[in-house]
Amino acid sequence: xxxxxxxxxxxxxxxxxxxxxxxxxxxxxxxxxxxxxxxxxxxxxxxxxxxxxxxxxxxxxxxxxxxxxxxxxxxxxxxxxxxxxxxxxxxxxxxxxxxxxxxxxxxxxxxxxxxxxxxxxxxxxxxxxxxxxxxxxxxxxxxxxxxxxxxxxxxxxxxxxxxxxxxxxxxxxxxxxxxxxxxxxxxxxxxxxxxxxxxxxxxxxxxxxxxxxxxxxxxxxxxxxxxxxxxxxxxxxxxxxxxxxxxxxxxxxxxxxxxxxxxxxxxxxxxxxxxxxxxxxxxxxxxxxxxxxxxxxxxxxxxxxxxxxxxxxxxxxxxxxxxxxxxxxxxxxxxxxxxxxxxxxxxxxxxxxxxxxxxxxxxxxxxxxxxxxxxxxxxxxxxxxxxxxxxxxxxxxxxxxxxxxxxxxxxxxxxxxxxxxxxxxxxxxxxxxxxxxxxxxxxxxxxxxxxxxxxxxxxxxxxxxxxxxxxxxxxxxxxxxxxxxxxxxxxxxxxxxxxxxxxxxxxxxxxxxxxxxxxxxxxxxxxxxxxxxxxxxxxxxxxxxxxxxxxxxxxxxxxxxxxxxxxxxxxxxxxxxxxxxxxxxxxxxxxxxxxxxxxxxxxxxxxxxxxxxxxxxxxxxxxxxxxxxxxxxxxxxxxxxxxxxxxxxxxxxxxxxxxxxxxxxxxxxxxxxxxxxxxxxxxxxxxxxxxxxxxxxxxxxxxxxxxxxxxxxxxxxxxxxxxxxxxxxxxxxxxxxxxxxxxxxxxxxxxxxxxxxxxxxxxxxxxxxxxxxxxxxxxxxxxxxxxxxxxxxxxxxxxxxxxxxxxxxxxxxxxxxxxxxxxxxxxxxxxxxxxxxxxxxxxxxxxxxxxxxxxxxxxxxxxxxxxxxxxxxxxxxxxxxxxxxxxxxxxxxxxxxxxxxxxxxxxxxxxxxxxxxxxxxxxxxxxxxxxxxxxxxx
Length: 938
Prior knowledge:
This protein has 938 residues and is an alpha/beta fold. It has 38 helices and 34 strands.
């Protein structure tokens, strides 16, 4: 029979730490700690499979679950000597969510379950502390009502504040027993008023409703948003752990806390966390009370502190990773309530991974898997310019929760953060305190500032995980979310005002403070020496390990030597895309380009191109010299010619002004000629118009000039003894005959130039696969192509039917409705566009088994897209220089993941040979490859 409930307690657990899929992270941690002899309150975990049954049964738990739960409750009762629902000696429990993947604060938990009007009296007598019992009861009512009945927490908070104010109590800790009794009665009235029913007095009904509410919380909006952000599958479900309560609110010898075995912000190896005396766990993570640093526990309860240090050190060594732990102290006795691998910033992730290798806790291979590409990218994010920040007033200071620089317009609500961001604004989300419901706004904002909260509050934990600069506990600011403003003394900051926050030191500044490159980027640019930067040393060490495991090569998209130099510093192994049109916009070249476009005969056009040739040769020579010994892929002219001319509307206005002023007729006539040519070149859909290989076919002299510039530059450097590897790429091919036409021009010019130079030069001619027709006819196109490079920007545009310039207007709505999980122009649409790529790879290699294949669209730097490229059997990815480190790490991680899973890239052994492309030299024939048999092509 399938087992659905797993017990833990008395030093033995039914499950263990490797059962996260069934027990969730929380349940697995409780089981593991129990088996290790660590003090954990007894309890049981209802598996994720029951959650799935709950949803299959339209939101109802299986009928047998209540009886099974009672059996396990009896086991808890036996261990603790208390009875569930007993008015004299009541057992109380917590009901906690816990999915396989940690989702801090996204699902629901209920504490003190089992209290009612009778058991609260028994609890008071048993504990000898009436105030504690009624405090626990009011907490339970508000928590249960908000989780189970979906009532607003603010209604309970407002009612509590009213009573405290009327009694002159400034904080919860000074509220008297009589006042807590009043609060309980008011809370019960509120439940009746808002929910239309009485608060349940039957503990078993409480447990049933709480358990089902935990399962429902798997699909609340914040949990769904979190899963979407972090690509967690929706089908997994949450486990539900029922645990005997231990109480941190039984007096000053009791307390609760949250901590990390190392700093989750910086990675520093020091005990890190916070705790509160006379409090329950929600008080710490909600940020409603200012907690104490965990080191203060050493002064308050030294024996407990030493025991906590010993246990957490054991846990880190056991799990071989930083542990995020929760604990409660009940009248001097320590209990561990949770341990899990701690969320951390990118800076901390890299440092911790490198440090743990040095400590021999993990291997370099494991270190590579400990750092995600998104975390690594955080080390490349800009920081505030030290000089410029002095020009901006520091108006407040809070706790530096998550490092980094964030600047933008102030917003006070999560929905507004999303809406403003969708309009293209940079925003900083300012809240009194964040709660899990703010997850979507935190994801949209550049940074987060809260008035309340500590080093382990919700805003801090989520901000670190997201890599968002975060400042919390900034008590100097008084936030009025309804009025959409905050005050600092006499100063008022309103919605829309510019604000900057420094998550590294907690400073809050007025205005939009300029930024400068991060320390790692400064080293890569040569502005700092490597030995001056510990973050860079760890960054470089981690990537050196990653390079040992990856199969994919990583190139960069670069058009000028400066970009190529940056690419090399970031670890690029070549240039995967040089866009030659970017070279035409330079001030001294554009008039010649315009002259070429205006030419009304081939002779005039050739004359203009001859004037452009020396410029192009200098461009290519600079790139080749920078990339000595590395391949350089140069795309021939791609955009439509009208892009090099002034806009039609601008010309019309200019001509009208010239005529009004009575300007020189010759000047006006010249402008009118350009306008006439613009009108002649006008296209209704220029992205599908006269561009790419179509330009080279109708104006072959353009392709001739570019080929001549490429090969003259290469041969001149070859004469200097340099190793040059030019790869000429023909864009927008949809028919093999288009490629054959342009390839012949390139090869004819190449052979002529090479023969004249007397040098041997290897080169290849390939194509960009960016037209769907090219993808499905790749077997034929491979007959002419030496390589394929997927231009996924256009392939996505044409394949999905989305304009990449206009899709921003509706893509956010598509993602919100889960029509697409992500923006298809940022992360590859694997099911659709990915299928075109798979077809192209398979058919291309059916014709040429060693065909070299890469990707040069924007997706080349997206980690999920890199994973796909590896698995489909590509040889390299190419991306912007700044994304090269991210792609290197992603390529290593997917290689390790697939090796562990026993997967091989598509194409099997054929992909190995493909790393050596087919190469043509001056001694080889000009003809294309022999046509493959029909069976191989289809």
